[in-house]
Amino acid sequence: MATIGPFEVGVLGLLAFIFGLDYIWVTPLGIWRPVVAGTITGIILGDPITGLIVGSLLEFVFAGLFTIGGGTVPEAATGTIASTVLAIALGLKPEAAVPLAIPIAVLTMNLEIVVRSFDAVFTHWADGEIERGNYGMIPLINIIGAVPWGLSRAIPIWAFVGLLAVNPEAVKAAIEAIQVVQIGPWTIRFWDAMAVAGAVLPALGAA
Question: Which PANTHER family match (predicted)?
């Protein structure tokens, strides 16, 4: 288990921002891929092996998901960072943390839809500069227009990891509260079930 502080909150949010930019640039480096994002997150939290395991499992979960045209898909990097943080900070099995990537990835996907609409402002700005013959402004507008994309990734991570930093006991209590769930005559060990789901998801994928 790792202690989450302001440094980790800031750096992980910045990483999510960078991963977001890498995802949309014309020549991405591929550092947003889960196996890379998980490993880097693990290094920051002092447990690169767990980060590598979580990232490797999620690489299969998010295989084949990529934005084409105007389509949006669950955002792999933020989901990977969040799952890796949970696994390391709370001592969860890597397999149990894997399914938790999906809700964060879907949340970020919906933020991306908002960003796509907002970025129309930069398109109109660029059109105006072209009409005035200020072609040198186009690269700058392109760079500024990418900032909201990075923030759509960074803000969920800052909020999520920040919650762990500010009140880790509450998060741990929530995790322990659902350790065993009673549904009628059935007793379900939630995190064991999540571990099974996490082992199956890489074979099925998130699509």
Answer: N-ACETYLGALACTOSAMINE PERMEASE II COMPONENT-RELATED, N-ACETYLGALACTOSAMINE PERMEASE IIC COMPONENT 1
